[in-house]
# Entry
Amino acid sequence: MTEGVDGGGRMVAELEDRAPVVVRSLTRRFGDLVAVDDLSFSLERGTITGFLGPNGAGKTTTLRLLLGLAEPTSGEALVFGRRYRDLEEPARRVGAVLESNDFHPGRSGRDHLRALALAAEIPAGRVEEVLELVELRADAPRRVRTYSLGMRQRLALAAALLGDPELLLLDEPANGLDPAGVHWLRRFLHRFAEQDRTVLVSSHMLAEAAQTVDEVVIIDRGRLVAIGSLNELTRDGRTLEDVFLGLTGAAS
Amino acid sequence: MRALLRSELLKQRSTRTTLGLFAAMVGLVLLAVLLHGFGLRAESLRDRHVQLMVLGRGEFLGVLFAALLGALSLTAEIRHGTIRPTLLFSPQRSRVVAAKVAVSMVIGTGFGLVAGAAAVAAGTAALRARGIDVQLDRRDDALLIFGAAAAAALWGAIGVGIGAVIRNHVPALIGICAWLLFVEGLLAGDVSGLGDIGRLLPGSAAAAISGQDPGTLLAPATGLTLLAAYAGVAAWAGALLTSRRDVP
# Structure
């Protein structure tokens, strides 16, 4: 992508290639509704960024745009400097957990993962590894219909981890997890980021987010309202919740 | 592409849907053929045309269930949301649709073979049991069975296309049933005034492949060519729309 470009252009391109996520002037309209409105932010490698906003703020739409499941009206949403669908082996670079419950209820957890692994030419052994990792090995032969919400979240995370990705995009991954599960997820994400890998995690649970994330991106009605490190935003002794409610106009 | 085909085959094998459709199809074939074979008056069953019609129920039901299977391979993914991980793991959407078309055609072939053979076997047995002369020779039987396989394979592809275009589970499945069971019969029949054009419709083309109603329908080879064209257009439309639209 940098061939024939001068030195400056190459440097910019390389920087972008290194940035796991770049969102630039991203806009998505659905008829009259502006779901994402001129949104720009980027993520640095090795960080966990909380993606926060009220219901309907555009978090899920932004994640869908990043993953190429929807097309922007204007602007761009890039992962590792490219559109998701232009990545060579996207499942090996980006893992995603979407908020929706994306399983066939009549298929076993193991077969769900095996079908995805086959499509991306990921070895079958990796399916067993991720099942072990999310502690679902014993339940893997059972149909997803019989899984609790927490088990489904862990199965979704297992699918995201199949390709051993460098970037995780997670939409409300703690939904339905019990306290032990939330604790496990937090430790998992910290270890993941310590390996110089990157996480973007949307959440409603501000107290939990405050314990997990390094960086914060807050959006409201599709627009960016705050961005920065958690320490910066809460420097004056306010909690993340105070900051959030103040910025999104929900305090009163 | 091989990776995608293996993935799609595993999806088909790992739920009970395929087996359920298969069992329902075999049951209905036997029911339809035996009801006709034992229910119709002996005089009318002696007619070669009527025998072809009765044994042709295999082709008809093979086509119907292959079409449902093809449509379900897409609409079930949309309904349960698995289309999202599917397309995240293979973002080239037209290739995913192509793999679904190929797998639906393979399973459709099996459906058609079994439905065609079951209809021929049950129909012939019923005729013999009633002491009615079987007017069909080996060539007719082979055409009924392999014609059903080819027709069901192509309708499997059409089903994927319909599923990809309509996307919503219920209207896609009801649409296929209504078309094959009802609408096409009305359009191709005497009341619509379509006349000769009726035999160019995709359900009639499928029936033509297995040699049914030779006076009215197209020749088997012509029917096969026409149905293949329908299948090609449906698969192409499905791939195009799946690539262009947002994933639900």
Summary: Chain A touches chain B at residues 64, 67-71, 84-85, 87, 90-91, 94, 96, 98, 100-108, 111-112, 114-116, 118-121, 159 (CB under 8 Å).
